[in-house]
Amino acid sequence: MIVLLPPSETKHAGGDGQPLSLDSLGSPELTELRATLVDELIALAADRDASRRALALSAAQDGEIERNATLRTAPTAPAIRRYTGVLYEALDVDSLRGAAAGRAAARLAVGSALFGLLRANDPVPAYRLSATSKLPGQPGLAKRWRPALEPVLADIAAAELVVDLRSGSYEALAKIPGAVRVDVVAEHTDGRRVSVSHFNKAHKGRLARALASTRSEPDDAASVAATARRAGMRVERDGLRLTIVVPA
């Protein structure tokens, strides 16, 4: 089973790994496009105004542009520890120990606008590029990634279950046949339900933690739902789609 996480805009700075080596990342089929995008971001960083427009940044966020300028020389960290935010706080991968930590390293992956697909321990620098970014003179990232990334994800999905927790803009980079998808809804006392927006990340982070660390080997939507329920979550299943129900 692979649990595919969305990335986050915010990322931990620094790291103690060697500078970026694209050849060290998983899914070498993606290396060519990764290298192209890295080079484009480095070149773009020389023009702050253009970087702000392309990356939807304010002047107060110029540090993000500086990160992009040093993509090939900055220290790296494992992908699963690079990203920050609500989902990654709920996942809390650093608190896993022993066999649970090993299972998490094998099962967790991250969708990335810059690298396409990252396994948990792939070493990457901090960067700024979102799925909705459009680099000057280039097509949108979904159009660029789909031909390269969809075959890679299809091969993975043919071999093992994929639980796809990505947000809509990252789903658009590549579809995954047969993946389990997850929604989060809040239920009022009168039975009305509304979609959860920001805090769905926390619930997906808790689900990711349960799936990453479980001793069982979920291999279909029903066993994913069962794992979530054992972790104390209320989950409903409709085919390949799971709904986490939380109090409003």
Explain how this protein is built.
- The structure is a single chain.
- The chain is an alpha/beta fold and 248 residues long.
- It has one domain.
- It is built from ten helices and ten strands.
- It has helices at 31-44, 48-55, 62-69, 79-82, 86-91, 98-107, 141-159, 168-171, 200-213, 221-230, and strands at 2-5, 77-78, 108-112, 116-119, 123-124, 162-164, 180-187, 193-195, 235-238, 241-247.
- Strands 1, 3, 4, 6, 7, 8, 9 and 10 form an eight-stranded mixed sheet that branches. The chain has a two-stranded antiparallel ribbon with strand order 2-5.
- Strand 6 (162-164), helix 8 and strand 7 form a beta-alpha-beta unit.
- Helix 6 (98-107) crosses helix 9.
- The longest helix has 19 residues, at 141-159.
- The two termini are 31 Å apart.
- The mean pLDDT is 97.
- It holds the Pfam family H2O2_YaaD.
- This is Peroxide stress protein YaaA.
- Residues 1-22 are annotated as: Disordered.
Identify the notable features of this structure and list them briefly.
single chain; 248 residues; alpha/beta; eight-stranded mixed sheet; two-stranded antiparallel ribbon; 17% strand; Peroxide stress protein YaaA
